[in-house]
Amino acid sequence: MKDIRLSRLPHEEVSEQLKKLVTGPRDSGTFLLIGEDALPYAYAFARALLCESPIDGDACGSCPTCKKTRNILHPDLVWIVPSGKIEASKREKEQEGLEGRALVMQRWEKAFKKNPFLRYEDWASEQKIRNLHIPVSELRFAIEQIMTRQYEARRKVIIIWGADMMGTGGNIMLKTLEEPPKDRFIILVARNKSSILPTVLSRSIIINLPPLSEEQILTFLSAQLNISPEEAVSVSGWGKGSVSLTLSLLQENNRVAKGIAMELWNILPQKDPEWLRWIETATEEVDSISTTKEIVKWILSSIDPQFSHLGSKPQQLLSQPQPLREITSIVEDVLYSLDRNVNPKLTLHYLINRLYEVYKKYVN
């Protein structure tokens, strides 16, 4: 999807709500978009806010500002994204002189242009990031940008992707979130609100993205992403009402991984020999490390609070804030090991034993 605008995204009611905010009387504000597919909506909303000649609250797509925002080049559209320790390659260090924020943003822009429905797990896995979070230094940078006048547009927009990864560091932004300067707009993006500080929630206009119907997903994939109906139908029912999850499933490795990951919740209470059978199934693919990483990511996705009501009772219990934090930490450790080519079978043994500890604590 090369030209992302509100009118081209599948949540029509959400798009209409955002369009009204663009044309409304507000001259500043803080907005929080919550949902698995919230990232492209934040971007489309920002484009509409910055557009020189918006059409019914949506970006026109043709003005100089729209052309720049389409290519992630506009100086008045500032991005804050979760990161961690990212190592620059020799070329990036010597030829491009990239490090710190510049390195993270160049990598992120490439990933976002490739997939505007980018998920936390895929971003962390691609960049080999452990302990994905938004550093306090980035939040300070966000405050600095909000307080700095715009360069070209009549407005300035700061998008913070991963508001549920700010932690207590989000406290330093409270005054800024409550009263952004005139013509400054802050758009927070989160998968769910359970990990967001109540003080941040209370200062934001909250916009929830409910799960889409299977028909909405199929229509969007066919019309906007040129994916054949036959291909989309094969996985749309597994997408839990989310375009990003459905897109992930269209990769063959992911289809295999999803099925294996779902088995885990059935065999976890049974211990050996079911555990060993599950590990053998999970690692018998040719590209075992890649497949194993997808299995691990799907295990985490299956207890996403936004979709927990669709899962089993154990999955619903494990989607609560405390067990979810513990499982997320375990998954990050496992993905970190796999990125360093640790044997997949040994890694899955470690994973299933650690998950069983959490399972016993919160389910049994």
Short description:
By secondary structure, this protein is an alpha/beta fold. The protein has helices at 12-23, 38-50, 64-70, 90-94, 100-114, 120-127, 136-147, 174-178, 198-201, 214-224, 229-236, 243-249, 252-267, 274-282, 288-301, 313-318, 321-339, 344-362, and strands at residues 29-34, 77-80, 156-161, 184-190, 205-208. The chain is 52% helix and 7% strand.
Report the helical percentage.
Answer: 40-55%
Structural class: alpha/beta
Order of helices and strands: HEHHEHHHHEHEHEHHHHHHHHH
Question: How many β strands by DSSP?
Answer: 5
Briefly, what CATH class of the largest domain? Answer: Alpha Beta
CATH fold description of the largest domain? Rossmann fold
Q: Which strand order does the major sheet show?
A: 2-3-4-1-5
Mind telling me the CATH superfamily name of the largest domain? P-loop containing nucleotide triphosphate hydrolases
The fraction of residues in strands falls at: 5-15%
Mean pLDDT: 86
| Low-confidence segments | none
Oligomer: single chain
Shape: globular
Instruction: Give the termini separation.
Output: 45 Å
Continuous helix count: 18
Using only CA atoms, what is the Rg? 21 Å
Report the major sheet. Answer: 5 strands, parallel
Count up the domains: 2
CATH architecture of the largest domain: 3-Layer(aba) Sandwich
